[in-house]
Design brief:
mainly alpha
Length: 103
């Protein structure tokens, strides 16, 4: 059975891979579109750059730095959760040990 921290890490890892996939697809589409723009007048090229800028803002992709920072925070939180779970198990077993001695 996976611990809470393992599930969190797996979920984050999956989301991170999906975002990276989206970024790669977006870059490919952008390159393809820019290649086709060589045939378009310069006025329209500026319009395309504006559209790309707006799309990036609307899609709000996290930067690699933001993803790395988030990964570090998740790692710290998962360590704390594991530590709390271990502490609860130790307290529970100590409590059970005291109760069995008094019986």
């Amino acid at each position: 059975m996976a611990t809470v921290s393992e599930r969190i890490k797996e979920t984050f890892s999956t989301a991170q891979k999906q975002i990276e996939g989206f970024e790669k697809q977006f870059v490919k589409l952008e390159k393809k579109a820019k290649a086709q723009l060589d045939e378009v007048p310069s006025q329209l090229k500026g319009a395309w750059d504006s559209v790309v800028t707006r799309l990036r803002g609307a899609l709000a992709f996290a930067t690699r730095e933001e993803l790395n920072s988030l990964a570090e925070k998740i790692e710290d939180l998962s360590k704390k959760v594991d530590k709390l779970i271990r502490g609860e198990k130790i307290r529970a077993s100590a409590k059970d040990g005291k109760n069995s001695k008094h019986v």
